[in-house]
Amino acid sequence: MSAVQGVSFADIALRAIFFAVILGVTYVINFVFGKIVMRAIGKRSRNSAYEISRIGGIVIWTVGILSALPILGASDIVVAIVLLLIGAFLIIVTKDFTSNWFAGQMIKTIAPFRVGDWIKTSGSYGRVTKIESLYTILVTPDNETVVIPNSKLTSDLIVDRTTSGSLKVPIELEIDPSVEFRQLTRAVAGIVSQLGEYLSASSRESEPEIYVVSQEFDRARVRIVLKIDNPAREQEVASEFRKRFASLGLSPRRASAIEEESRSG
Fold first, then answer.
1. How far is C-alpha 156 from the chain's CA centre?
2. What is the DSSP letter of 238?
3. DSSP string computed for 225-244
4. Which site in 83, 110, 191, 227 is 20 to 30 Å from 101, CA atoms measured?
């Protein structure tokens, strides 16, 4: 039998068969691994199952190819170079996976927010419906689903607008600086009692939350914090509160009225 550079054709054929067998076994292992992952994790988190299956598949194929290269007669240097190239590829491919996974564990451990909370980020606002290992899912007031990578949440400013199951509705108003705080409290409490059907039980039963934001010569800015159970009525409640507050005559006086009063004084 003829030979090529000291290697017989029978030896080449045998090596090719072993190489094909290893690749076939690798394919089967990868297929079974994907099925097991999807069945074990897919029901709870399909996204996480897909990512784990994808990364696991890359590792399985890497091991299979590295195991097959020596059979083809590849030298140790070639195997080392291939290993380095595959390692660099794995680092690039798994970068997002690892960062999102670790961020997900941090969110679950520290719990800056929980399922059911209404949170606001730099680009999204909605109710948290699911916290997965890699992603957090929100549903916006318009009933749109937003999937946010966990690594983005851990590096972004998050405002949790939920307190004891209710949604906070901050309303900033300008009032005349001559208005006493007690008078303002009574006025806000009166409006709260009128809007009782819109507000949560905690807002109806407790003192209204009022904060002085700033104060100037001709006006003061205050923030009223209401709590509602239905986030879809947030804009309606804020608009109705502003309308009723405006009718009380506590807003800043016009500049002309202030000048006229100062002249008469």
1. 9
2. H
3. EEEES-GGGHHHHHHHHHHH
4. 83
pLDDT digits (tens, 9 = 90+) for 248-265: 888 876 444 444 444 454
N- to C-terminal Cα distance for the chain? 123
User: Tens digit of pLDDT for each residue in 11-25?
Assistant: 777 777 887 888 888
The stretches of 69-129 forming alpha helices (DSSP H) are 76-110
Asked if residues 107 and 154 have their Cβ atoms less than 8 Å apart, the reply is yes
Name residue 174's beta-bridge partners: 221
Residue 1 · residue 8 · CB < 8 Å: yes
The single-letter code of the amino acid at 84 is L
Q: Which of 53, 22, 26, 19 is nearest to 39 (CA)?
A: 53
Tell me phi and psi for residue 214, to 5 degrees.
-160, 160
Token pair for 46: 């399909």
Taking residue 33's Cβ as centre, other Cβ atoms within 10 Å add up to 16
What is the enclosing helix (H) or strand (E) of 53?
helix 46-68
Helices (H) and strands (E) in the chain, counts: 8, 11
Q: Which tokens sit at 106?
A: 């941090």
3-state SS, residue 228: strand
Biggest CA–CA distance in the chain, Å, is 123
Residues 6+ apart with CB under 8 A from 64: 22, 23, 25, 26, 29
Tokens linked to 95: 């970068």
For the chain, helix, strand, coil in percent to 5 are: 55, 20, 25
Which own/partner contact pairs does 28-34 have at CB distance under 8 Å and 24+ positions apart?
29/60, 29/64, 30/56, 30/57, 30/60, 30/61, 33/57, 33/60
Mean pLDDT of 210-216: 86
Task: With H, G, I as helix, E, B as strand and everything else as coil, classify residue 101.
Answer: helix
Contact 227, 167 (CB under 8 A): yes
DSSP state of 207: P
